[in-house]
Amino acid sequence: MRHLPNILTFLRILLTVPLAWLLRDGRYDAALAVALVAGLTDALDGFLAKRFGWQSWLGGVLDPIADKLLLFVCFIGLAHVGALPVWLAWLVVGRDVVIVAGAVAYHNLIGPLTAQPSSLSKLTTCLQIALVLACLLHLSRFGDWPAWVNTAMFWTVAAATVVSGLDYVVHWGTKAWREGRASSGDKR
């Protein structure tokens, strides 16, 4: 049972394949169902890991990868079918690429990285997930609302994505600069 959270996380990674396929083929009701199942597995694996102390190094690595992979597939797939602007998809993906590249650089140049997502980053991810679900609902037979609602969500997600991306760059860039200066001072 201890490995159940990791199994659920791996399942979430596997769900990206049918999700991408369903989006490409315009099967939005089914894509919405897969996205909801993925969201439930995310909530369940987090609950189980925390409730029973089943956290693991592997889960700590795989969980954010699964989340980012699902968001990547959704944003690119929804942009591909015209449900959201291409520029927004690239902004969301670009932010994550910058964060991952920064984390790799920090790890290689400064040392081990034990980062927790900031409150702003968590809010941004929640807004991104809400936008994906809203777009899927809008495309499915279950949602119908004025186009301005989606436009407002696009700009809200864009603003949060830019601000949280800048927050990561400034916070971790400053931290790397300070630690780099401290370690070069130690060598004198």
Topology:
Elements: H1 4-14, H2 16-24, H3 28-52, H4 57-80, H5 86-109, H6 119-139, H7 147-186
Helix pairs in contact: 1-3, 1-4, 2-3, 2-4, 3-6, 4-5, 4-6, 5-7, 6-7
Subcellular location: Membrane
GO molecular function, one term: CDP-diacylglycerol-glycerol-3-phosphate 3-phosphatidyltransferase activity
GO biological process, one term: cardiolipin biosynthetic process
Question: Could you walk me through the main structural features you see in this protein, from its secondary elements to its overall organization?
Answer:
The protein is mainly alpha-helical. It has a single domain (4-186), classed as Four Helix Bundle (Hemerythrin (Met), subunit A) (Up-down Bundle), CATH 1.20.120.1760. The protein has seven helices and no strands. It has helices at 4-14, 16-24, 28-52, 57-80, 86-109, 119-139, 147-186. Helix 3 runs antiparallel to helix 6. The longest helix has 40 residues, at 147-186. The protein is globular, with a radius of gyration of 18 Å. The model has no long low-confidence stretch (mean pLDDT 90).
